[in-house]
Amino acid sequence: MKKLLAIILAAILSLALVSAFAEKAPEEYTGSLTIYSPHDADPLNAGVAGFEAKYPNVKVEVVADGTGNLLNRIAAEAAAPMADVLWGGGADSLAAYKNYFQAYKPSCIDLIDSALYDPEFFWIGESPLPMVFLVNTDLVAEADIPETWKDLADPKWAGKIAFADPASSGSAFTQLCTIFMIYGEASDDYKAGWDVVRSMVPNLVVQSGSSGAHKNVDSGEYPIGITLEKAAIQYDTSDAGHLKIVYPKDGTSAVPDGVAIVKDCPNLELAQLFVEYVLSAECQTAQNADYGRRPIRSDVTPKGLPELSSFPIMTYNFDYAASNKADIVDTWKDVITE
Known about the structure:
Blueprint: H1 2-17, E1 31-37, H2 41-54, E2 58-64, H3 67-76, E3 85-90, H4 91-96, E4 101-102, E5 124-128, E6 131-136, E7 161-164, H5 170-183, H6 191-200, E8 204-207, H7 212-218, E9 224-228, H8 229-232, E10 243-246, E11 256-262, H9 268-278, H10 281-291, H11 318-323, H12 325-336
Parallel strand pairs: 1-2, 1-3, 7-8, 7-9
Antiparallel strand pairs: 3-11, 4-11, 5-11, 6-9, 6-10
Helix pairs in contact: 2-10, 5-6
């Protein structure tokens, strides 16, 4: 009997988490909600504008900052939350702060690979994000273009590789974890991988924000940047352009950006509505077409991007990254000051 009751309660909870928004017309939603987001301005503003156009009586306020800063802010505001939704940031970073989010199971969950969302629905992936090198071919000869992470440790690149700060940038944190996870083992806290990171440090120029790792390569300030595919794809990387995207031959990660509802947020219904919109085929298609972002849904085919199967994807240890985030950041701080 107890087992049956547990099953019934679990079913009720599952149903409660699933959207029932089809019951209301778009104009019936009113009020405002606050979105925290580390996304670049153009896709962020376009997504918000699309939401407001669809729900004309809802006003969205946006607070833009780095993932780490926004997560720390959400934690600091936990007693009186100001944000309703965090849109963006690597899922490994969101997983480390899942206690500050509340579960929500979107209506399209069956169209998303189970590896790309939290099993308890505290965060949902909204776009897989391969990590790449962006190379300025005006400054780097074809024969010298790095092909692997270890290539970035070559002394000839001393002070020439733009890299965001993993202490404040969610994407840089994922890039850091990607490097040491490729070359190390969890059993000894990825010691060999951290040795590779150390060998790269003299070549890295830490940027104050994630955008510096691609914008400053485009401008010619640095010849190489470590960045996200979604950022690199915004530039002219054709044969006629001066930039080239490199997918590391020794493997890269494709950790998704996530979307999550803040625990005890002021506007829960609208927060759920926004999550549904971000994951909708409408928004996913537009973000791919206009900003080169990879769709998370299996029913939306990416345009203008190579298939994920065309380059090696490493196995990313989500649990380790989430459980050890503070220690990883502390180790990074120690490494760059050694």
